[in-house]
Amino acid sequence: MIYSENISFQLVDLLLVLAIFSHVTWTVKSSSHCKQALSREIRPHSVAITEFGAVGDGVTLNTKAFQNAIFYLNSFADKGGAKLFVPAGRWLTGSFDLISHLTLWLDKDAVILGSNNSDDWPVVDPLPSYGRGRELPSGRHRSLIYGRNLTDVIIAGENGTIDGQGSVWWNWFRHETLNYTRPHLVELMNSTGVVISNLTFLNSPFWTIHPVYCSHVIVQNVTILAPLDSPNTDGIDPDSSDDVCIEDCYISTGDDLIAIKSGWDEYGISFGRPSTNIIIRRLIGHNRNGSGIAIGSEMSGGVSEVYAENLYFFDSSTAIIIKTARGRGGYVRNIYISNVTLAGVDTAIWFDSNFRQHPDELYDPNALPVIERITVKDVVGDNVKVAGLLKGIEGDTFHHVCLLNVSLNVTSESPWNCSYIQGYSASVSPETCQPLKESVYPKHSSDCYHLSDHLQSSGNQNRGSWLLSW
Ligand SMILES: *[C@@H]1O[C@H](CO)[C@@H](O)[C@H](O)[C@H]1NC(C)=O
Ligand SMILES: *[C@@H]1O[C@H](CO)[C@@H](O)[C@H](O)[C@H]1NC(C)=O
Ligand SMILES: *[C@@H]1O[C@H](CO)[C@@H](O)[C@H](O)[C@H]1NC(C)=O
Ligand SMILES: *[C@@H]1O[C@H](CO)[C@@H](O)[C@H](O)[C@H]1NC(C)=O
Ligand SMILES: *[C@@H]1O[C@H](CO)[C@@H](O)[C@H](O)[C@H]1NC(C)=O
Ligand SMILES: *[C@@H]1O[C@H](CO)[C@@H](O)[C@H](O)[C@H]1NC(C)=O
Ligand SMILES: *[C@@H]1O[C@H](CO)[C@@H](O)[C@H](O)[C@H]1NC(C)=O
Ligand SMILES: *[C@@H]1O[C@H](CO)[C@@H](O)[C@H](O)[C@H]1NC(C)=O
Ligand SMILES: *[C@@H]1O[C@H](CO)[C@@H](O)[C@H](O)[C@H]1NC(C)=O
Ligand SMILES: *[C@@H]1O[C@H](CO)[C@@H](O)[C@H](O)[C@H]1NC(C)=O
Ligand SMILES: *[C@@H]1O[C@H](CO)[C@@H](O)[C@H](O)[C@H]1NC(C)=O
Ligand SMILES: *[C@@H]1O[C@H](CO)[C@@H](O)[C@H](O)[C@H]1NC(C)=O
Fold first, then answer.
1. Given 224, 247, 278, which residue is the final one in a domain?
2. What start and end residues bound the annotated signal peptide (predicted)?
3. Would you say residue 241 lies in a domain?
4. 308 CA to middle of ligand 4, Å?
5. For each successive 10 residues of the chain (470 residues), what is the average pLDDT?
6. What separation in angstroms does the CA of 450 have from each of 209, 339, 377, 402?
7. Judgement on whether residues 334 and 445 belong to the same structural domain of the protein
8. Which atom of ligand 1 is nearest to the CA of 113?
């Protein structure tokens, strides 16, 4: 009897130690986690694109040179991989395919330019989690830099540039002369171990960097720019992907700077692949017709365990938004956002639950999204119009929404407008709306995601293990 009590006591002790350990490794080790991956950059073999006949004059089309170089480098995939070096110059190309164990390396003044001819961007199948192209039914143009079923891929360089020359696409979009959905600048599909670092991305035709059905993706120290009025030029869109780390980025585009997605209505629900374990930190950005960090509007496969911190958004339309609708299904849960600085932002926090774009008429209007356990903490802002536009869905209240230490200088007469939401708050100025009035402390800190209950939070176990596995 005494003996078995002893054992169970030791077991509890051990579990506690393990739990504390996994939390500590996150906060301490997570900063080295992104760097560790970069040591894999050394490749034993290297070729320059010029060895395959490429001409960096900005007019010669180099698609064949990229394809031939990568075909050649495939023979080194099982020998530690290889590097394709792109020297200074302006390298015009159509869409090309990457391979596993490849580093695409852009020298300091190297510019990869996307062709202005839509035929150079072949049409591929729609994503199964969208059921159709995002803009038009049927297929979609393939991204300029594309990869599928890959492992260990690095796209990096000394601040070289990948320029999609998107203006031709934006014009086709505006004049409604597109035949298929516009292409991304970079898309990696069903791939693992992806690093994108130390580069500048300009003028994407559509979303800029799109990891979809991927695991272990790092986007670090990149600049992403597109005109503030360019249509749908999102910065980075992790889509049905897990273990994604985005850090030290500057993004200024025509739409959402980062949008976390997971498929669209009935197609996303049946595909059922969530986005989870997403870390975003040290992001600076600016938008006119989008947001700093968005979740959705396509979130039908679910989005969870998102940690975003040290964010600075200026002269922007919206800082943080969750976009959803009836028919979307899925869930958004366990979201923790902290240390946000805003300067000149129209809406600081927005839950838009009426984002009614559906792939077709087959969606189920009774598929309601579950939105819960959203913590937003340590926010300061100057010259903000509206603090919070927090709208749940009638009959589908968004719950455990927690706001702490939010201090905004707001110009609107009614800074908060809330409906169908439930939650708690502490130290919020201007004074928050009625449904969030109840204090977080002392009774409700464990109802708020990632506040005082690290040891019990469901995300902790996952997070500890994926970071340790790096
Ligand atoms: C592509 O189109 C853009 C905008 O019309 C133009 O500035 C650029 O020179 C064109 N590039 C090529 C290589 O044709
Ligand atoms: C994903 O890639 C792996 C190989 O890396 C392959 O075995 C698998 O079939 C692919 N799945 C899809 C849906 O493309
Ligand atoms: C990726 O894997 C899927 C599923 O196995 C396969 O159908 C597809 O052809 C593969 N694509 C490439 C580019 O390897
Ligand atoms: C970011 O990239 C630039 C070159 O593009 C490099 O000089 C700088 O050291 C990088 N910073 C980090 C933190 O990696
Ligand atoms: C990289 O280049 C972009 C565009 O030219 C520039 O805005 C950015 O400051 C550069 N980044 C670094 C780290 O040098
Ligand atoms: C759409 O198709 C028409 C007819 O084939 C073609 O003339 C046009 O160039 C295509 N548009 C784009 C943007 O590719
Ligand atoms: C990016 O630049 C930094 C600083 O020069 C370097 O430490 C890091 O390894 C680079 N990243 C990649 C993937 O080369
Ligand atoms: C802003 O984006 C929305 C949705 O993409 C679009 O309908 C609208 O036309 C855009 N507005 C401007 C001013 O670009
Ligand atoms: C908060 O974020 C800012 C950048 O926006 C950074 O300078 C500051 O050090 C961060 N504060 C903490 C406590 O991490
Ligand atoms: C409140 O948030 C601001 C901005 O992130 C931060 O500087 C400050 O230390 C926080 N205050 C407390 C009591 O945590
Ligand atoms: C908000 O305005 C007050 C009074 O105008 C000013 O003292 C304070 O510094 C401002 N706060 C911020 C965060 O800008
Ligand atoms: C809240 O928003 C609704 C419409 O979304 C509007 O009718 C109402 O006037 C707003 N309330 C306040 C206090 O701003």
1. 224
2. 1-27
3. no
4. 21
5. 39 39 36 52 90 98 98 95 98 98 97 98 98 96 98 97 98 98 98 97 99 97 98 98 97 98 98 97 97 98 98 98 98 98 98 96 97 98 98 98 98 97 98 97 95 48 35
6. 29, 14, 11, 10
7. yes
8. 13
